[in-house]
Amino acid sequence: MNVEFFKHNVGNQEIKLVEKVLRSLFLTTGAYVDQFEESLASYLNAKYAVGLTSCTAALHLACIAAGVKPGDEVITTPMSFVATSNSIIMADGIPVFVDVEKDTGNIDANLIEKAVTRKTRAIMPVHLYGQMVDMKKIFAIAKKHKLVVIEDAAHALEAKRDGFRPGQKTSFACFSFYATKSIASGEGGAFVCDNKTIAKLIKKLRSHGITSELAQRVRTGLKTYDVDILGWKYNMDNIQAALLIPQVKKIEREWKAREGVAKIYRQAFKKIGIDMPREYKNSKHGRHIFPIWVSPEKRDKILEYINKHGVGAVINYPAIHLFSYYRKRFGYKEGMFPHTERIALSEISIPLYSKLADKEINYVIKVVSQAVKA
Ligand SMILES: Cc1ncc(COP(=O)(O)O)c(C=O)c1O
């Protein structure tokens, strides 16, 4: 049997809406993007969403909106996809890593305050695999030291903890619609916040800093524009938005299906003693990735066995601070963030999506069980 690592949820509704865009005049940022932004904000119960080309773009612009200037520090986690800390460097900031909780992989909020210096401008937590970090603690530190909170919520569209969801309160939240995310447009992202001025700034920064985008000029009859700030080219287009609009309506249904799969996996793996991240109480897990933690010495062999038996499985993530660029530029070495390093060497992500059939779920469990015993 072959079980793919991921299958997206693009169906007839999405294809029809994309066709409508393709048969229309306006392929780039326009009414479909507006509609997507409204529906995303409404789903998240947040005030503003801005459609972008990726979560990386959202994180980069969030750093700029947070006022990160050359040499400013942003506290973040080395247990993430490299986009998280790269976005800080893209804004000329310096990523300052602190280690993660050893039993969840999320940034250890108790270590953040010790890392705050006069140069710290923001905290960038990642809701790893879909579990929200301790936002209560992080908001308290941010308030005390006047820092901006930028949530990397690429895994956490559906997540909730202690009454918080990403992008509420005073934080900026960044989402990904990359090919394997719970709603996917191939590439795509969004910035979400509750501040109108910041949302307007992000809209300007996504299109070179021009004071009005084309669709707005068409609507209002404006003939020209100014550029009063340096921006980038990160605007979501109508094709991406048309792929996403129908998917927003299915977020909860798809999440429930993944939650069901995750429950079956957790029960089965607990029985045979496979280690998995602890799950918080008072929390709704976004269920983006299903990780298992195996012995670091055996991990690569186990992964190979799983793949050889037709099950898609990958590693999420290598430790960022040990990438050669990060070692060379910032002097990071082995041993600096031991929990991150252990997770990086022991993690395997297995298939988690709504289209998994019962027999596929059972096959994944069988193969993983055999792999750890082999
Ligand atoms: C935690 C995390 N942050 C950021 C990103 C970057 O997202 P994008 O590919 O949309 O730029 C990803 C992508 O997979 C991610 O997993």
Care to describe what's here?
The protein is an alpha/beta fold and 374 residues long. The protein has 2 domains: 12-249, Type I PLP-dependent aspartate aminotransferase-like (Major domain) (Aspartate Aminotransferase, domain 2), CATH 3.40.640.10; 251-373, Aspartate Aminotransferase, domain 1 (Alpha-Beta Complex). It is built from 14 helices and 11 strands. The chain has helices at 12-22, 31-44, 55-65, 83-90, 109-112, 135-145, 196-205, 214-220, 238-249, 251-271, 299-308, 324-330, 338-346, 358-373; strands spanning 48-52, 73-76, 94-97, 120-124, 148-152, 160-161, 172-176, 189-193, 283-284, 290-293, 347-350. The strands form 3 sheets. It has a 7-stranded mixed sheet with strand order 1-8-7-5-4-2-3, sandwiched between helices. The protein has a two-stranded antiparallel ribbon with strand order 6-9. Helix 6 links the parallel strand 4 (120-124) and strand 5 (148-152). Helix 3 crosses helix 4 and helix 11 runs antiparallel to helix 14 (358-373). The two termini are 19 Å apart. Bound molecules: pyridoxal-5'-phosphate. Pyridoxal-5'-phosphate binds next to helix 3 and helix 4.
